[in-house]
Design brief:
There is one protein chain. With 521 residues, the chain is an alpha/beta fold. The protein contains 17 helices and 18 strands. The protein folds into three domains: 342 residues, Metallo-beta-lactamase, Chain A; 75 residues, no CATH class; 73 residues, no CATH class. Strands 8-7-4-3-2-1-18-17 form an eight-stranded mixed sheet. A six-stranded mixed sheet has the order 9-10-11-14-15-16. A two-stranded antiparallel ribbon has the order 5-6.
Amino acid sequence: MARMAPPRSGVKVRMYRQGHGDCFLLAFAGREGRKSRPVYVLIDCGLKNGSEVDASIQDVIDDIHDATSGHIDIAIVTHEHLDHVNGFARQSRGRRLFERISVGRVWLAWTEDADDTLANELRKRFNDTLITLAFAEERMRRFSGLDGQATVVSELVETETGDTCQTLRTAFNAVRADDPQASPTALAEMAITGITNKQAIAWLRNHAKQGVTFLDPEKPPVTLPHVAQSEVFVLGPPRDPKLLLDLDPQGAEKFDLHRSGLGLDGASQSLSLALAPGGGTNQAAAPFAPRFCIAPQEIATDDPDEDTDTPAETAEEYYRHSYHSAEANWRRIDEDWLHMAEGMALRLNNEVNNTSLVLAFKLPKTGKTLLFTGDAQRGSWIGWSDLAWTSASGPVSTRDLLADCVLYKVGHHGSHNATLNGRPEDPYANLGWMAHGDAAREFVAMIPANTAWAMGKSRPWAHPMPEIEAALHRKAQGRVLRSDLEPSSSAPPDPPTEEWTDYQRRLRPHRLYFELTINDG
């Protein structure tokens, strides 16, 4: 296949069509010394297992190799979900498919920085929750009527890790056997280090010849190597923990006000305690007052038929013969605890989405911007709203960047919580802020999704949500590209407008990808 040549001024964007997952290749015109050269940026590479379409992930990686002549200047990982990173882990005949593609530098969000205090706190919370869910899934399989919920938990854990719950439990038990005195949090961190998603990112970081840059919305825009006057603005993830945990649209931010959110309260912490391997002992966070709990110390019992006290038994022994006895069935709450595991898994999945690296690429001549949001959700959008920078091109705000947006990579496959509804005059960032003036005549939305696969699941996902897809079609006047559909599925204006004709001229459909050229003047 031919090399992907950038326009003389501007950028080409390929959205790959491998399945339910993100993979975007950008080509800019650059210059190294006196010699011109293309500069390639890759944003994510992954898909949900089983969601493949005509293009396999190997086909995509082969095309990336040929399109870039085997070198990527910047590789970006928005967040560590399966459908964004597992392409970096794929192997064929014992060899990693990406090994034959060299990488200059890797860009990651500040949440991946091991020297960042807040990032480390978030990571501990993630690790502990993930281990809890892996053990919850095992217990759920023991109760009739919970298989469906257990399957949902299993699927969501696979998204977080790239592996099964069984793999995670085995890893945890192995490190616990090696170090029985270690805290559960330390054991969780050791077990999760070896999961597929983390290994994929770790390999990519080690593979980058120029190392890693951690990006932060509180810092100035970054530049692309060899691309004159390039500016890339970091919008998310926010550094406010409340915003990171703020997941679902509220009120008028929703595209369908009849749909409810998925957020949970603090009860998920109680589930974690109840399912903790070895038993939870943190009485301050336990769901019941201490007087109702079995203390961890030995319990002395009196046998009325004996003249002397029976030997003291441990709390574990007492629990085993008392709580699990047939006579005590009426007071068992095992199944009730487990009902909240599905919601806990959904929340964790959404929280990781909200750590997505969000980038706005600004073209220097026209100021056109390309917005890549990963899977960022409500709190991240709110966090962008008041951002402002002093850049080489002068003062820039988020409102400025969104007003000049000509390409929107739709968040989280068009999910209900990854694009906010609203009007241009609203104080929070939303779809109404995007594409004003000249940008409105060029605005294109790209949705990476395999809707038939997503809707065919036992628990269907509305990816994309019909109301959001319809709003995008109105906003873009039909210029919406969904990776599982041909461009002909978008009805052109009748009669076709000059903007539509220009869009068709700049679009190149292919079995493996859609390629769109965005000119900068």
